[in-house]
Amino acid sequence: MKNQNINNLVDFYHSQHFQDALNNAESSKTADKPSSEPEWVHDYLREKKLKFLFIGSTKSEKNILIKLCGKFKNEFIFIENMKKNKINKYLNKSYLGISIIPPIDMYLQACPTKIIEYLSCKLPIIVNNEIPFQKKIMKNNIGYSVSWNKKSIARGLENFILDQNYSLKRKRAFNFYKKKFN
């Protein structure tokens, strides 16, 4: 990691549960499978040198994500282990936090601590709207709400890229953090 540029990161958080959900989505006949990736998004990511950072990802998660993401795979940085006190170094150089969890019963009341970490670092967030807590906090206009499918997640990234009010969302994210979690 020392040789990699850590500027312009979009931080993702995922776990074994996320990997399981990806496996299920990939094998599901009803899974939303767009026929093509939006080419301009790929060009924009490459031009701006944006990278997707996965902290805490295992080798199997890495392999699944690379397989699912085609030509975007070169835009990923994977870090398997990191001390808690080092995470903010990366978050403070990031533009966006993403916490998308499967909308299954065991997560319906979830508030991933990663969301709070993102907000404390002034990061707007992408969360899925099927989780009631996440849907509720998005009423504060602190990020981008998506559904648990590929097209919606891609649309969330597109909204982030095109957002003319990004700076305002950063301020709102931090103000929301101070008001609710500090």
Measure the end-to-end span: 32 Å
How many strand elements?
6
- Share of helix, binned: 40-55%
Shape: globular
Report on the structure:
This protein is an alpha/beta fold and 182 residues long. Helices cover 44% and strands 15% of the residues. The chain contains eight helices and six strands, in the order βααβαβαβαβαβαα. It has helices at residues 16-27, 39-48, 59-69, 87-91, 113-120, 132-137, 150-162, 166-180, and strands at residues 9-13, 51-55, 76-79, 94-99, 125-128, 143-146. It has a six-stranded parallel beta sheet with strand order 3-2-1-4-5-6, with helices on both faces. Strand 5, helix 6 (132-137) and strand 6 form a beta-alpha-beta unit. Helix 1 (16-27) runs parallel beside helix 3 (59-69) and helix 5 packs across helix 8 (166-180). The longest helix is centred in the C-terminal third of the chain and has 15 residues, at 166-180. The termini are far apart.
Record keyword descriptors for this entry:
182 residues, alpha/beta, 6-stranded parallel sheet, 8 helices, 15% strand, disordered N terminus
SSE arrangement:
Elements: E1 9-13, H1 16-27, H2 39-48, E2 51-55, H3 59-69, E3 76-79, H4 87-91, E4 94-99, H5 113-120, E5 125-128, H6 132-137, E6 143-146, H7 150-162, H8 166-180
Parallel strand pairs: 1-2, 1-4, 2-3, 4-5, 5-6
Helix pairs in contact: 1-3, 5-8
